[in-house]
Amino acid sequence: MSNSKRLEQLLDMLSKNVDSFLLFAIAKEYEKAAENELAKEYYKRLVSEFPDYVGTYYHFGKLLEKSAETEAAIEIYNKGIAIAKALGDQHAWSELAEAKLNLED
């Protein structure tokens, strides 16, 4: 299945049911298609509507890093670190802390 067909299907599904996984999948599809601004919009929506979807913060931060938005990436990592800590998700906390540390070096 082509990326555009997959994206079309995901957008159609999202129009019927707003779901964190769908938003994440759409952001990743846009990212794969190098549509970074659209990907950022879906990541922002995820952070706003589903703040506990902790995987968002790592992928959003990495996209911001690629876009040379260092301060924004650090801010997203910090938010994710706080959420992961609150949720007791040590794995996510560790990945986010490492990403932030590597960026600050």
List its traits.
single chain; 105 residues; Serine Threonine Protein Phosphatase 5, Tetratricopeptide repeat; 6 helices; globular
Structural class: mainly alpha
Total discrete domains: 1
How many beta-strand runs?
A: 0
Total helices: the number is: 6
Helix content: over 70%
Q: What would the average pLDDT be, to the nearest integer? A: 94
Report on the architecture of this protein.
The chain contains six helices and no strands. With 105 residues, the protein is mainly α. It has a single domain (3-104), classed as Tetratricopeptide repeat domain (Serine Threonine Protein Phosphatase 5, Tetratricopeptide repeat, Alpha Horseshoe). α4 packs antiparallel against α5 (70-87). The termini are far apart. The model has no long low-confidence stretch (mean pLDDT 94).
Give the gist of this structure.
The chain is an all-alpha fold.
Write the layout of secondary structure elements.
Layout (H helix, E strand, L loop, with lengths): L2 H14 L3 H13 L3 H14 L5 H12 L3 H18 L2 H15 L1
Helix pairs in contact: 1-2, 2-3, 3-4, 4-5, 4-6, 5-6
